[in-house]
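EI: anyone free to look at a 373-residue chain?
SC: sure, send it
EI:
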Amino acid sequence: MSIELNWYLPSHGDFHGLANNQVGSSRTFARTNSPAYLSDVARAIEYAGFNAILIPTGPSCHDAWVVAAALSRATTRLKFLVAFRPGFVLPAVAAQTAQSLQRITGGRLLLNVVTGGSSTEQRGYGDFLDHAQRYARTDEFLDIVRRLWSGEQFSYDGDYYRLRNARLRRVEQSAPPIYFGGASASAEAVAARHSDTYLFWGETPDMVRERIARADALASAHGRRLRYGYRVHVIARDTEEQAWAEADRLLREVPKADIEKARQQFALSESTGQARMTSLHAGRSINTVRDLEVSPNLWAGVGLVRGGAGTALVGSHEQVAERIQELHELGVDSFIFSGYPNLEEALRVGEEVLPLLNQANSANSAALRAVGA
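SC: here you go
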């Protein structure tokens, strides 16, 4: 399969340094999440040749549904990977909203289902289910949404949802693909049953290989086959030395107090994915920037202060393209990148790295056609 290359929309604001909405130093903040700036970023991402933008969800972000609708007027072909939490809206309402946005954007909607890894944050929205219950609810939610999108009329009696004679009055021909993340056993089970693309944060190739093998087996038991996605930051420069110098700058500018605050917050997280990210840098002695290189060109420094995706591909344009190609050969077909700041880095990666990947894909396709001939 071809590589799908996507970028991240900083709907909480953009940064010149490593920062997290809850943890990062305000000194690194550079640009607000104004409609004008987000439109500029979206247009740059489209111009750079990316397939879609991930629009995140969270207390500090603009609502992703609203942002996608707004940016559909500022772009022409860019798709919108809208992140949303299924427990905050009834499934039939979400199914109808997604269908509406699919029609309004001309079929440019993708959905990123985020179950939620922090009970504290969920309770701030009025959701008091625990981690296991949230995934069980997501399982029911996606079952209902899928059936509604298929045009079925049905009643439903689950542990979390009840519907009577539910159906969509208008059914779109193409339902939006579902992207789904989560690293726990509960998440893997839901992904196997319902996701189209199962997303991983930027783990090492060995970790990715293990997770793909396990998810393949789970999906196969349901007669399904999954695509896999990889969410990672990128620091690509003309030379390897320049890229690591930029990573070193990002690391040196992080106050030690911010790192300690982040460490305490991450220790309280219920997210298995966050624990896996934290394990990449926890306990490491950090004397130089490359002490956090956990696999060739994969740097865990971002995760010192940023929750969620905590690694970056660091290297020359050629090295970054090679690492992406290697992950693709492991079975990863979809990538979601980001950088500091996103506007400039999306253009840089689009102009320097994407052509290398396109060349590699063209060569691979030609080789496969030759074998087939």
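EI: The first strand starts at residue 4 and ends at 8.
SC: 👍
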